[in-house]
Design brief:
Blueprint (H helix, E strand, L loop, with lengths): L1 H22 L12 E2 L3 E2 L5 E2 L17 H7 L2 H7 L4 E2 L13 E5 L5 E4 L3 E2 L7 E2 L7 E6 L6 E6 L5 E6 L9 E4 L4 E5 L2
Antiparallel strand pairs: 1-4, 2-3, 5-6, 5-13, 7-8, 8-12, 9-10, 10-11, 11-12
């Protein structure tokens, strides 16, 4: 009985350490940008490979760049989210508090994604919208972290933006929960 109890305590401690590691990503040295948590990606065999390199949605897409070009163009946090399907920490993006009329665009390629009129406060810590602009985003199945979700990517460059859930407000009932670091905002003149 003592051996089983020791085993269960050790296993629980190990799971706690793994969970804490996944949730509390380190910040880049000398940067004020929020750290992004790396995602797991479903492999061809159907299993999520922790630590395996994840990539933005597979194309073809109108905007194509090499990995080196993406790294040069994007900040480390943007690269982690857009190209490696990471997630920024909640309540860290200034775009979460952006309420002016305008357009939210992909930080990777500039594609207009959401009109600010469709933004709402979901109380999740990420900018949320009830509808993207027509043809602006694509969707893929995401089985990371032991759950099935619908990932959202930019239709032009394939950059990971966030996820869509069926718990949003009328008229669509959808919540496009986006990483603010994956977007820019252009106020309407």
């Amino acid at each position: 009985m003592a051996n089983r109890r020791h085993f269960l305590h050790a296993a629980g401690g190990a799971l706690g350490v793994l969970a804490a590691t996944a949730v509390f990503a380190r910040r880049d040295a000398g940067r004020d940008e929020p750290a992004a948590v790396p995602a797991q990606r479903e492999t061809a065999g159907g299993r999520a490979a922790a630590g395996a390199p994840a990539h933005a949605a597979s194309g073809p897409f109108p905007v194509v760049r090499s990995d080196a070009e993406w790294r040069e163009r994007l900040s480390p946090a943007q690269y982690q989210v857009l190209r490696q399907e990471g997630t920024e920490r909640p309540y860290t993006s200034p775009l979460n508090d952006e309420h002016r009329p305008g357009t939210f665009a992909c930080a990777g390629c500039g594609r207009a994604l959401f009109d600010a009129a469709t933004k709402f406060d979901s109380h999740t810590g990420w900018p949320s919208f009830w509808q993207p602009l027509a043809g602006a985003v694509g969707e893929t199945r995401d089985t990371s972290f032991g759950m099935v979700r619908t990932a959202v990517h930019c239709a032009d460059c394939g950059g990971h933006l966030g996820h869509v859930f069926e718990d949003g407000p009328p008229p669509t009932g959808l919540r496009y929960c986006m990483n603010g670091v994956a977007m820019t905002f252009e106020p309407r003149a």
